[in-house]
Amino acid sequence: MTISNQINNKAVDKKSVKKILVLFSLYLILTPFYFWESGLPQISDLVMILIIISNLINNKMTLTTSVQGKQSILISFMFILYVVSINFTWSFIMGEYIFIKSSLFYIYNFGVFITTVNLAHIYKDEFFKYIMIGIIGALLTQLFMLFYGIGDNYGGGRYTLSFNNPNQLGYFAILIFGILVFLNFHIRIKTKWLLFGVVTTGVLSIISLSNAAIISYFGILTGLLIFKNGKRFKKKYLILLITVALFVFFILYINTSIIHENTLLQSLETRLGSTSDKIARTSEVRGYFRITEYPQFWIFGSGEGAYYRFDGSSLEFHSTLGNLQVSYGIFGLILFITLMIKSIITSRYKCWYPLFFIMLYGVTHNGIRNSLLWILIALMSINYNSTSTKMSNIKSKDE
């Protein structure tokens, strides 16, 4: 079955397709809302599960993707299979079920990954437009909460808005910014909405007062300004906006006390000023000592759980790649890095810098469980001009 025939078949049930795409927008809008404690499924996760099931039913348990998408799915499947195997092994050895709970995050995100790959390949621009609608809706709801003073409850001037903690807010902002950069390459985004997304994600990063998120945001922004983004992106408007904003900030800074007495800016200055001290304490605070002091886990990993094995610490490793290395060894780390490199190559290196700076954020935070990261990698994993490959029951075979 060719890709054109597959798309024509989809047209028979347009209502089902429309519902899936609308649900994906709703998922993005609901993603920031944490109604329960972190680590538990949220409302958005329930919506995504419904999307995954509906997509499989609508496609009669068949996934259609490009050759590159098939390769990325196979790499991600190998990674998830390895993760689950390691966690089940340690669950049996330690007699604890926390390892199985950790595996569920990865299995869920694998479902998110293959569903995104499938939808992106089949519906292309239409799917991207619904993602953009979801992004705008999510950012508007967060701005609404900010303007009405909802979520400034973490202390030190740090905002949480609808999240449980400000780091989640900062990570959400840079992930959305990364997806926005991807969309800019594939669909025509009106300048006003592009600027809205760029500015709003910047505001959310800053009010989170997350050093990692702020640095990563400006890294992605710099990449957006430096690297060619096609005729669809009018750089001059963004450059003009940033120039005017910096000029206004400078005038206010030297002529008024508004900025000097602003609590948020004072907190930001304090946190950025302590960045060097935090870097010096990274190994101790984030858990990097586990790499050097526990070489027995270098090859296969320690599994994700029972952290008391590490000098009695009850906290997980606060690093994306670092946690993968300790939990799943060199094999798990290589598989995930291979998946990212494959996605970068497939996207023709257009979106390397958002992924790079998102991983830079991950130097001090473990962001592997966030489904938006898997969505971004999935979007980058498709060659939209290549020949399609039908994948039946997640097993690939060329037609």
UniProtKB/TrEMBL annotation:
- What GO annotations for molecular function exist for this entry? ligase activity
- The reply to whether Transmembrane figures as a keyword in the UniProt entry is yes
Specify whether Mitochondrion is a keyword of the entry: no
Keywords, comma-separated and alphabetical: Ligase, Membrane, Transmembrane, Transmembrane helix
Origin: domain of life: Bacteria
Transmembrane regions:
20-36, 73-93, 105-123, 129-148, 169-187, 193-226, 238-259, 326-345, 352-382
This chain's protein is named: O-antigen ligase family protein
